[in-house]
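Hey, resending since the last one bounced:
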Amino acid sequence: MSEQTPVGRTGLVTTTIPVGGMGEVRVAIAGGTSTYGAYGVDRTVPVPTGTRVGVVELFPPRTIVVAPVDLTPRD
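The structure tokens again:
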């Protein structure tokens, strides 16, 4: 994982990603944080503000595709 790319990192949804629309996600990168416009990987499901997500794709310069991260402990 490159230090300069958000792909493979986790972030926090700061503006809800609506069905078929774009929200915003804050990602820790290169010693700081950056905010990106974001689509959900499943565009039929909204991703609410406060959801932890993983970045799966980057459309330069400032748009990403994200998927919710399951933080539930496994047995």
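The CA atoms of residues 16 and 49 lie 5 Å apart.

Sorry for the duplicate.
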